[in-house]
Design goal:
The protein has five helices and seven strands; from the N terminus they run E-E-E-E-H-E-H-E-H-H-E-H. It has about 140 residues and is of the alpha+beta class. The strands form three sheets. A three-stranded antiparallel β-sheet has the order 6-5-7. Strands 1-2 form a two-stranded antiparallel sheet. Strands 3-4 form a two-stranded antiparallel ribbon.
Length: about 140
């Protein structure tokens, strides 16, 4: 078994613990300190961007990678960060929430076509999704 990283700090850069064949060596909840609820309300489509403020406390490798992803684009969604980090969305929400508490990132509610927020009873949008799914099947 070949391990690509032996810790959270390798050759001057933070990386998560990975094994080339098995994937993550540590459980995802260890990245969030075992927490499963973020301190801030984040949606999968919330737009997150870096503020330029550096946290004054040392953070884990996943926090650092999430911050780099947010700084690398104008704004990314929580879902995109989760996909890039290969972590469950709830863990990424906790990580981003931590970064928000330190002022390193800020989040905006998702924007939908038409300028309004999505309501669960929005028949037009739900019908469009249903029609799109029917076409694909």
């Amino acid at each position: 078994m070949r391990v690509r990283a032996t810790g959270a700090y390798v050759r001057g850069r933070d990386i998560p613990w990975l094994d080339d064949s098995a994937g993550r060596v540590m459980r995802p909840y260890t990245a969030s300190g075992g927490r499963t609820r973020p301190g801030a309300a984040l949606d999968l489509l919330s737009l997150v961007s870096a503020t330029g403020v550096r946290p004054r406390v040392p953070l884990g490798a996943e926090h650092t990678l999430a911050l780099r992803l947010c700084a690398g684009a104008a704004a990314v969604t929580v879902a995109e960060v989760a996909g890039q980090l290969r972590l469950p969305a709830v863990v990424v929400k906790v990580l981003l929430s931590d970064l928000m508490e330190h002022g390193a990132v800020m989040a905006q509610a998702p924007r939908f076509p038409g300028g309004g927020a999505f309501a669960a009873d929005d028949q037009t949008l739900l019908q469009a999704v249903l029609d799109g799914l029917r076409k694909r099947l």
